[in-house]
């Protein structure tokens, strides 16, 4: 019987994510209420990784004391390493197969009533859904299950990592100035996705007709980690859809990237 690998972890020096840290992206983060509420960190691990070990790796990661001593959590307006080891974790595999932005082309077609020919979003009467003000069809497409636009993306598409990033940007933080046009959301989604996800060449395909030569080499997990009292800390208050924590595993390079967003400030 094969034993699960006994992973150990080492924090890496802060990496410069050029497309995320550039002035345009940071401008939009500030406008959308995201600036200061997103943390990205990198760690390496020692053992070979196979995708079937992903849940075990996630559990070892959040129960590791070295990770706990370096993992940043939101405290008010600051990010602080709390030293909290997880007592339990909930892990959900996040599909990550999208290779280009044509995934969002249906949003650009005026016939689908998300945007006008000008690229400006189609407005609707204000409604409150899950605490968000929905004043256009773009947010309706994300939040309003009863509107026609919601059907543009099926459940499998909505689960995709790139859609989750897009959703996070469109809904924004507690102090969010919404965009009148769609394109800034698409451009910023592309930058984040491109920097966080590794694209690799496929191995030679045995099946005839497999004409793509690229695939995604990153395994993505959504995680809720809880302390010994059963309180969620990664992320805190995960019942809010904008409090989300991801673990991105690059098995080839034996690296893990954490992506955590907390909606506004949170006080322990």
Provide an overview of this structure.
Cilium- and flagellum-specific protein that plays a role in axonemal structure organization and motility. May play a role in outer and inner dynein arm assembly. With 268 residues, the protein is of the alpha+beta class. The protein folds into 2 domains: 37-74 and 81-93 and 213-261, no CATH class; 102-196, no CATH class. The chain has helices at 18-21, 23-31, 54-62, 65-70, 105-108, 137-143, 155-159, 161-171, 183-196; strands spanning 9-11, 38-45, 72-75, 78-81, 88-94, 123-129, 132-136, 199-201, 214-216, 219-226, 232-234, 244-250, 255-261. Strands 1, 2, 5, 10, 11, 12 and 13 form a 7-stranded antiparallel beta sheet that branches. Strands 3-4 form a two-stranded antiparallel sheet. A hairpin with a 5-residue loop joins strand 10 (219-226) and strand 11. Helix 8 packs across helix 9 (183-196). The longest helix has 14 residues, at 183-196. The chain is globular and about 55 Å long.
Q: What is the residue-averaged pLDDT?
A: 92
Domain unit count:
2
Q: Helicity level, as a percent range?
A: 25-40%
Q: Find the structural class using helix and strand composition.
A: alpha+beta
Rounded to the nearest angstrom, the radius of gyration is: 19 Å
Number of strands: 13
Indicate the overall shape: globular
C-alpha end-to-end distance:
43 Å
Largest sheet composition: 7 strands, antiparallel
Strand content: 25-35%
The parts where pLDDT drops under 50 for at least 5 residues are 205-211
N-to-C series of helices and strands: EHHEHHEEEHEEHHHHEEEEEE
SS summary, helix count = 9
